[in-house]
Structures are given as C-alpha cells and as structure tokens.
Amino acid sequence: MSYIVEMHEVNKFFGSLQVLKNFSMSLKQREKVVIIGPSGSGKSTVLRCINHLEPIQSGRILFDGQEITEKTDLCALRAHIGMVFQRFNLFPHKTALENIIEAPVIVKGMSRSDAELTGMELLNKVGLSDKKDSYPRELSGGQQQRVAIARALAMNPKIMLFDEATSALDPELVGEVLLTMKQLANDGMTMVVVTHEMGFAREVADRIIFMDQGSIVEEKTPHDFFTNPSHDRTKLFLKRITQH
Ligand code: ADP
Ligand code: MG
What we know:
The chain is an alpha/beta fold. The protein contains nine helices and ten strands. A six-stranded mixed sheet has the order 6-7-8-3-9-10, with helices on both faces. The protein is globular, with a radius of gyration of 18 Å. The N and C termini lie far apart (39 Å). The structure holds adenosine-5'-diphosphate and magnesium ion. The site of adenosine-5'-diphosphate (ADP) has 10 residues, from helix 1.
C-alpha cells in the first residue's frame, strides 16, 4: 500500500536550535500514528513540517508520493491535509455551518448549496446538527473542537493531523472530542495524533512514536509500548504521566 506521508532524515533548525534531528517517519493509507513526548520535543514541528508550514534545512518530505519542494503548490497540498489545533480557531463571526462551508466554497469553488449539504452531513457526524446556526461563543469548547474537526473534514482530506486537540478543554469535555476522533479512525481516516491521552493512544494507534529532543526514541505498537518500553526515557515519561 502506498505511503501518504514520508519524512526521510529531516533536520529542522530554528536559528541555531536543532528541533528535528534526522527525523524519519512514514505513514500508509489508513494508518493511525500517535506521537507523544515531553513539551518542546518537536511534536508540533513534525506536524507543521508535514503541511509545510515550516521549511526544513535538510531531508525529504513526500506527500502522496510527491516530494515537497519549492515548486509544490502549497495551497493544493494543504487542501489534502486537515489540521486541528489545541485552540479552536473557528471564525468567531461565522456560525458553525458557515465555518464549515468556508473552505469548500472559497478554495474549492463548491456551490454554497452543495457545501451546505455536505456541511450538514458533517455536523451530523460530529453530533452537532442542532448547532448549525450557533456562533462559536455560543458553543462549549468541546463543541467548538468538534466543529473544527468537521471543518477540516469538509475539504475531504487524505490525512488528518491533530495537535493536542483536547489539551485546552475542561476535563469533562475531553471525552466527546476523543469519541469523534475515534469514530474518524474507525471510518478509516489516516491520522497523526499528538496527544497526552494515553487511553486514546492505546485504543486507536497502530503505532506510537515517542520522541524527545527532536528524535524518535522509540516506535512500537501500543501493546509493546505500554507493556515493554525499551528506553529509560520512555519509562520515565510513562511513569510521570501516569502519576497524574
Ligand atoms: P512540542 O510540540 O513537542 O512541545 P515544538 O515542536 O513546539 O515542541 O517545539 C520544539 C522546539 O522548537 C522547542 O524548543 C520550541 O521552543 C522550539 N520552537 C518552536 N517553534 C519555534 C519558533 N517559531 N521559533 C523558534 N523556536 C521554536
Ligand atoms: Mg506542541
């Protein structure tokens, strides 16, 4: 099966600070990879490199078999990549449905009525069809994050990237967003998920990548990762997060 994303020996610097060190990761269609690691280890940078929000200094990144170069049409590339961030970045002056149809109408040139039909299907999918006319300020954080997921899906992406999508939520709202992400995984979406939710990682990931200081320390199936971590750094990290 073909790879959606390939990163080969990627080196990324911010000034003199090296944040990715010979980072390699490949992802096949329908695969779900969870990336975990301490703050500052480079997790967000990996996601930002995939859709080329960050230039890299060396190495290669391919998307759907095509190497990303200066000649790559970045708008076209990003249209295939859905991204959900920690902070819900919905347009505050647009309703849930308007948020969702914005990109299909503006970027893809879809008719408003077609976009609204798809948008309603997506709202239904994330369990918010009754909120189509609500503005972000009228929605809970969990609902906003579900709209953000629906909005990313509206472009019919080949892959979804999640960067700590539940970290800013009140604890009681985390579950509904994780459930939506699990449903997406069950639907066969290819996903890279940065999260501290170990239950989700255990349940959904095909592979878990543990990174520290810009490198992959360990890459294993969830079962092996949690029952048989090889490295002291992984053991220490797991001990720390399970103490909370
Ligand atoms: P994580 O998501 O694992 O917390 P990041 O990928 O955000 O880590 O950051 C990795 C490292 O790169 C950190 O040391 C961070 O301070 C640094 N960094 C991230 N973005 C920038 C930037 N725009 N300019 C300079 N340094 C940055
Ligand atoms: Mg981060």
